[in-house]
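Summary of Year 1 activities. Much of the first year was spent building the evaluation harness for sequence design. The harness presents a backbone, in tokenized form, and records the residue chosen at every position. We chose the following record to illustrate the format because it has been used consistently in internal testing since the harness was completed.
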């Protein structure tokens, strides 16, 4: 999936690009605002997605997302790895491998170029401008660009305006040098500044969010140690502040004024580390890669607030519900082998071992007896075990095979085992107003330092085929996850029929499964027309629901509202329903100078829900889009389209429906132009 696709589909970040692309199978997106998108792969939850290269993670998973920080126009290519089928990206099993545009080289001497682009969306009066310059010589290159974008409240299909305005600026700089014919160095810097970001699914407005990212990559070919040596190191950090005092937000949720709700948030994180990979090329196309990597993550956020309905203590004084200062240290070793056994059969295999140490401070500022029920923070969080310092040994192993059955059909199979350590939020957060259940604006998640790492076994079987004018594929998968990290409920405020702020605790369940399929097909009807379609489905189940138990250490939390009093089997929460796209593409056949695409996005109803966690069923819907582009000249590209052509008023399964009803944008016309010189 090329980043150039972002131009024709009006995308702002990598998350939105994955959500709009017709090539994204098994991927669901939680659209929190026009510039904040969370990506879920095959039923994965928040913070279960890892990005390649310089490691990114959100300050708070329900506010910022790692892929929303990367401008989609900087992307050369994106690969989504849906399972424990690569050892290079760290411990886990869902990965996004994206390549940023590299600095250019020019064999005939020094050159410089530039581009100017402007895009506009009518719904929300959203505009986006980008200015970029690049150039270089035969042995060095540079790139610099800046994006500024802004918008106001969008309208739903019923004409209701929802608070969703924003201002955002993104600066990117890159400089590359060829030290000689074998060695090169690339430096990259990115700066993201966002302000006045209104999230329809949140009680808070992000006053500002600032991210700084530094990355250096050294590459050496045919060196003394290996045929290819790649060393990458990075540092990135994000700071954010927000509050609930925005007039538009309080008009959207009248309970905020009625309950005298006040809230201030601030947070920051940092990620630093390195990855050293050595690759050797053998006979017959074999490759062997061995490497070592290290990640050091730090995070903290404070949420200071009060409200008449504050769960579970009723009227509260001002108190902090934080993620206390926390860190994760993760050294790892990995190995990966590619073996073309025959001309028709290629086998990939690999594995890694990681040691993860996590800890949190017990002196978070502003803690009161309300926050911890009068107990020390470590006792409150750990259920009287009394230790926040935890370490995990994680392993991974996989094997995949690609077999060319005939010139038109390729068979694929994979089997893998992977482990995922809990995140710092899952371990240590203390009842913040984070929306861990997407259908609720207000929830109170509590961390659990006694969590075990997840252990996932997965198999995949599939086939792709290409008969020239007819192309397609299908993939089936099944995953068994032991010690799956899920939520346990502690009930809600009994004075309301529907809990205003249900409290959840993170816990392990003995066994959960994820199973499903993905399929796609394209048929060239003639040299002008192509019909296409795809379909994705995931079924998630908790097979040991009655055995889950959050180790609550406060008496108020141990009532009969706990979810573990339910049955033994229940669907997993926040699993996106079956979704498909069908459409027709008209393309100028000679040089591809223009194209028009009409598509329908069809989403099924979702009745496989976690009722013990108060998740609600959602109806299905269908929306239509019309897109097109024209390469008017060699230097001028024009794009235009209509999203939600019929002005459908609809909710995604992840949209809130308590305290306020969040619907997605109605009809949106967009226009854009890019001039390259």
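For this record, the design step produced the sequence shown next.
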């Amino acid at each position: 999936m090329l980043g150039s696709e972002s131009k024709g589909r009006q995308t702002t970040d990598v998350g939105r690009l994955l959500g709009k692309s017709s090539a994204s199978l098994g991927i669901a997106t939680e659209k929190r605002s026009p510039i904040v998108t969370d990506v879920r792969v095959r039923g994965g939850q928040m913070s279960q997605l890892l990005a390649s290269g310089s490691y990114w993670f959100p300050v708070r998973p329900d506010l910022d997302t790692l892929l929303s920080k990367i401008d989609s126009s900087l992307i050369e290519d994106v690969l989504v790895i849906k399972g424990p089928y690569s050892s290079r990206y760290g411990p886990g099993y869902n990965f996004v491998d994206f390549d940023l545009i590299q600095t250019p080289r020019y064999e005939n001497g020094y050159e410089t170029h530039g581009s100017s682009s402007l895009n506009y969306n009518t719904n929300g009066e959203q505009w986006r401008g980008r200015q970029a310059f690049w150039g270089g010589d035969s042995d060095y290159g540079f790139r610099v660009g800046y994006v500024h974008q802004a918008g106001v409240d969008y309208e739903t299909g019923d004409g209701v305006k929802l608070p969703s305005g924003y201002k955002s600026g993104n600066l990117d700089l890159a400089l590359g040098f060829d030290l000689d014919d074998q060695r090169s160095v690339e430096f990259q810097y990115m700066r993201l500044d966002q302000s006045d970001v209104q999230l329809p699914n949140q009680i808070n407005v992000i006053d500002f969010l600032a991210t700084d990212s530094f990355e250096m990559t050294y590459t050496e070919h045919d060196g003394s140690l290996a045929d290819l040596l790649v060393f990458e190191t990075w540092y990135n950090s994000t700071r954010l502040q927000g509050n609930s005092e925005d007039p538009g937000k309080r008009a959207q949720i009248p309970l905020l004024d009625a309950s005298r709700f006040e809230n201030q948030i601030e947070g920051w994180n940092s990620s630093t580390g390195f990855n050293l990979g050595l690759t050797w090329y053998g006979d017959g196309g074999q490759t062997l890669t061995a490497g070592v990597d290290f990640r050091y993550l730090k995070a903290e956020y404070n949420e200071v607030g009060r409200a008449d309905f504050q769960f579970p203590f009723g009227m509260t004084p001002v108190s902090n519900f934080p993620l206390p200062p926390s860190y994760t240290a993760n050294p790892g070793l990995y190995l990966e082998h590619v073996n073309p056994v025959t001309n028709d059969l290629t086998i990939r295999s690999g594995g890694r071992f990681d040691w993860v140490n996590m800890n949190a401070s017990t002196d978070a500022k502003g803690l009161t007896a309300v926050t911890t029920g009068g107990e020390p923070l470590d006792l409150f969080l750990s259920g009287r075990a009394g230790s926040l310092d935890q370490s995990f040994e994680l392993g991974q192993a996989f094997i995949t095979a690609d077999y060319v059955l005939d010139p038109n059909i390729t068979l694929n199979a994979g089997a893998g085992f992977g482990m995922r350590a809990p995140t710092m939020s899952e371990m240590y957060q203390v009842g913040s107003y984070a929306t861990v259940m997407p259908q609720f604006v207000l929830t109170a998640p509590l961390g659990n330092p006694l969590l075990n790492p997840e252990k996932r076994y997965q198999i995949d079987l599939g086939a792709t085929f290409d008969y020239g004018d007819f192309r397609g594929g299908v993939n089936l998968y099944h995953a068994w996850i032991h010690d799956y990290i899920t939520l346990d409920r502690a009930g809600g405020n009994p004075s309301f029929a529907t809990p205003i702020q249900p409290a959840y605790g993170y816990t392990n369940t003995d066994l959960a499964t994820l199973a499903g399929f993905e399929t796609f097909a394209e048929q060239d009807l003639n040299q002008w027309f192509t019909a296409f379609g795809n379909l994705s489905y995931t079924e998630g189940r908790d097979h040991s629901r009655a055995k889950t138990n959050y180790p609550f250490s406060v008496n108020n939390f141990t009532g009969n509202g706990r979810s573990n009093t339910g049955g033994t089997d229940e669907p997993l929460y926040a699993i996106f329903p079956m979704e498909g796209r069908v459409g027709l593409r008209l393309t100028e056949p000679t040089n591809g100078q223009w194209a028009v695409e009409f598509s329908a996005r069809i989403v099924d109803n979702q009745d496989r829900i976690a009722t013990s966690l108060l998740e609600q069923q959602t109806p299905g819907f269908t929306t239509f889009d019309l897109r097109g582009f024209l390469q008017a000249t060699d230097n001028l590209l024009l794009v235009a389209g209509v999203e939600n052509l019929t002005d459908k008023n609809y909710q995604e399964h992840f949209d809130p429906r308590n305290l306020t009803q969040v619907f997605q944008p109605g009809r949106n016309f967009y226009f854009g132009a890019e001039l390259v010189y």
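Residues 311-315, 492-497, 553-566 have pLDDT under 50 and may be disordered. Quantitative recovery figures across the full test set are reported in Table 2.
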